[in-house]
Structure formats: structure tokens, C-alpha cells
Amino acid sequence: MSAFKPVRGMRDFLPEEAKIMRYIESQARKTAKLYGYKEIITPVVEPYELVTAKVGEEVRLRMYAFEDLSGRKVALRPEFTASVARLMATTLRNEPKPLRLFCVGSLYRYDEPQKGRFREFWQSNFELMGSDKPEADAEILLLTNYLMKSIGLKNYKFKVGHVGVLRGILSQEGLAEDTQNQAMQRMDKKLYEEAIKIVREAGASEKGIQTLQKLVNLRGEDAAKVLEDLMKAVGDYAEAVEAVKNLGEILSIVAGASEGLNITVDAGFARGLEYYTGMIFEVYVPELDIALAGGGRYNRLVELFGGEPTPAVGVAHGIDRMMLALQEQKAEVNLREAPLVMIIPVNERLYTEALRIAEILRTKNIPVEFEVMGRKVSKALEDADRRGVDHVIIVGEKELREKAVVLRDMRKKEQAIVKISELPATLKLQVS
Questions:
Q1: For the chain, does the N or the C end have fewer beta carbons within 10 angstroms?
Q2: Is 0.85 topped by the overall pTM?
Q3: Which among 157, 125, 161 has a CA at the least distance from the CA of 140?
Q4: Range 11-20 average pLDDT
Q5: pLDDT class of 55 with cuts at 50, 70, 90
């Protein structure tokens, strides 16, 4: 027996799981179409310098990076946004704004494998490029809500914050960007004491330290109340005040456009990626402690890659994590496909004619499996029943002389003689 297994952190998806994954992907594509996002396909391998710019130290350390045969340093993409920003800075730089772009595929990070966290994972990615208006941020939140609802998830919650609040305080306290990034990385992991220590050692005032400590403990589902308390806490920091106002505008638009969006505002919320400049968010379900989706505003990334200044906001949805959440919730997912038909010739002499009938049905978009194991009819019917086949077509010599076959309904345990010419219409009638 072979000892080969998947590489650690990688996995196989068997048919049922693959079906759920493709179902979620199809819902993401439907969402993209409904909101006007155009699909792009970007390379799995990108220049190392591109994917390491502004992703944060945590991601940088966990990349699959290597030299190719020409000695170029490259990496498997750890996320999509850098690739989309590269396109915006080059090929798409003269396209009219806004640009709504969608992509889907696999990504790679050398994380420690655990529940819901693998080294190869799948995401659908939406980017809205060219607008700095709060309506654009609201759209990303709303389309994420639509996707979560459309796949059948229950009790999911949005956690929302604003990088500009924290950056505004740290900048006014005179902290260099690298130091800010270090503090934000700790806050992303909820290592608040370490973050405060970094800020204190960098020379922040006692007022700044106390303000950050207030933010770390400030969260709640009453958005208006949290924003009011937040505004009081950051009153002496002009950039932070503007950020709070911006977050208030975004949440007001979302509340007006969609009922029942479950949002927790978290003032001390930070995300690991360094390119964020504004509103940030993640989506959770009670059954898992990992984010199913995450995103936010990044206004300077395209410019960093040599493009025009281009405000942007985006989100990545974890397709495999959403599948896990559905499984944890034991959700009833409607994966019913077109009913499956099996064709069984009663002997080998009838194989060619039976195959011809199978091809006729496939041209009419009727899925057909052909009995290729050489089983007797009784054994083939047992197999069809075990595998949930809906209808069986038995091709026999007597019926063929009448240009007909036996059509058996496996659920009703009934069968009838049907003309081959009428077979497609009869099948479609029975399954509609």
C-alpha cells in the first residue's frame, strides 16, 4: 500500500466537500454578477517584492518564497490584493473609475495547520477601486452580508473598526510607521499589553497610552453608543476624530440599506495586513473562532506599486472556512443537481447502441452514467440504487427492435417502455 499522503497543511477534497466548495464559489460568482464585479485571473506565482509590500511581518514570515531557475525571488501568492493593485498600477491604470474586480482561487501561507487553518486555502476576493466615499465601504459590507446569507449561514456577526483611529493617535504621538506596525501586529493578535509596551517605549505620552487603553476595552453592538464613547476618547487627536466620523458615515449607510446586519464596533480592532488605511472588518460565526471573511480600505497600495493615487476597498471571503462553518452549523445546503440517469445494456452486443443513446441525452443536458463494469442487470440496478441514481435506462434487444428502451424510476420503483426519440422529453418531464 502506498505511504504517500498530502503535504502537511494541504488536503484533498472528496466529492461531497468539493461539491460544497463549488456551491459557495458559485454563490460568490452570483454575488459578483449582482453587484457588478468583473472577474480577473491573476498568477499563483508573483514577484517576492510585490507580495511582501505592506502585508505585515506575520504574513511575510509565512510565505512560500523561493528562487526560480533564473534566480528571481518569487512567492506563491499569500493573498489577492497585491496582485489586483499591481494590475491597477499597470495594465488597468487608464480604465475609467470606479473599477469593480473579482477573483477566486487558492492561496498559500506556511501557517501551523489547525481547525479551519491550512497552508493552502481558497478565497473569493472583491475589490472596489477608485472611490474614497463611504458608500464604497458600505457596498463591500453589504455584498459580504449578501454572500453569507445566500449560502445559508446563520448567526454570523460583523466585527468592524477603523485603522485611522489607531494610526491617528500613534502618528500624533510621533511614532514611526514601523513602530506603529509592530504595535498593530500585537493588537491584531489581542496581545494588548505587548502593544502598549511598544508604544510606551517609543516615547508616547501618558495621555496617548491611556487613550489606547480605553480603545482596547471599547466595543459593543450599539454602534451609536460605541462611536459616541470613541469620539470622547480621541477628542484631542484630529486624525482619529475624522476616522470616527468616517466610520459613523459608513455604518449609517449600511444600517439604512440593510435590516438586521449584526455588527459589533470594536475600537481596538486591528488586522495583520499593513496596507489598511480606513475601515476594517471581519465576519465570525459562534461555532468557530476564526474569521470567515475580512477586508477593509487601503488607499495607498496602488500608488506604492507605481500607479496613480487610487483609493480602494476590498474583502476576501474564505471559501473553505465558510464550508466548515456550514458543516459546524449542520446547515441544510441545497446541492440538488440535475437528476442522474444510468444506462445499462443487457449484454455486450448492445454497448454501441447504448452509448449512442447516452450521447443523445447528454446533448440535451441530461447527465448520464454508463454501466462500464460488465455487471448483470440485477447487480447494476443494485449499484444504481446504492448510489442514488434517479432513473435507469435498460437497453434490451426486444425493445430496441421497436426503437424503444425500458425507463425505470428508481424512487417510485416503476418502469415503462419509452421510445428513444421521446426519451429526453420524458426524462425532463419526470424530473421537473
A1: N
A2: yes
A3: 125
A4: 93
A5: confident
Preceding amide of 424 cis, omega within 30: no
Least confident of 74-78, 269-273, 376-380: 269-273
Q: Give the pLDDT band of residue 379 (cuts 50, 70, 90).
A: very high
Domain 341-431 top-level CATH class = alpha beta
Is 109 exposed, middle or buried, given 0-12, 13-18 or 19+ CB atoms closer than 10 A? Answer: buried
Strand partners, 46: 75
- Cis-peptide, bond into residue 98, ω within 30° of zero: yes
Report the phi/psi class of residue 66: left, alpha or beta, with left for phi > 0 and alpha for psi in -120 to 50. beta
Given a contact cutoff of 8 angstroms between Cβ atoms, the answer to whether 228 and 149 are in contact is: no
- The Cα–Cα gap between 122 and 125 comes to 10
The domains of the chain are located at 15-328, 341-431
Of 391, 404, 401, 408, residue with least CA distance to 357: 404
Q: In 3D, which of 61, 192, 144, 118 has the Cα closest to residue 314?
A: 144
273 within 8 A of 78, measured Cβ to Cβ: no
Cα 129 from Cα 309, distance rounded (Å): 10
3-state secondary structure of 131: coil
Report the chain's mean pLDDT, rounded to a whole number: 93
pLDDT value, residue 338 = 64
Residue 81's H or E segment, with its range, is: helix 81-89
What percentage of the chain exceeds 90 in pLDDT? 84
CA distance 254 to 393: 54
Q: Taking residues 359-381, report their average pLDDT.
A: 93
**What pLDDT, on a 0 to 100 scale, did the predictor assign at position 429?**
79
CATH of region 15-328, choose from 3.30.300.30, 3.40.190.10, 3.40.50.300, 3.30.930.10: 3.30.930.10
- 206-216 and 223-233 helices cross at what angle (nearest 10)? 170
Question: For residue 329, what is the DSSP state?
Answer: T
Could you give the CA distance from residue 111 to residue 134 in angstroms, rounded to a whole number?
34
43: nearest Cα among 7, 86, 1: 86
What's the pLDDT at 2?
63
* Residue from 43, 294, 38 nearest 163 by CA: 294
| H/E element, 67 | strand 65-67
Check: CB of residue 287 under 8 Å from CB of residue 328.
yes
Tell me the per-residue pLDDT of 320-366, one tens digit each, with 9 for 90 and over.
999 999 999 998 877 766 668 999 999 999 999 999 999 999 999 89
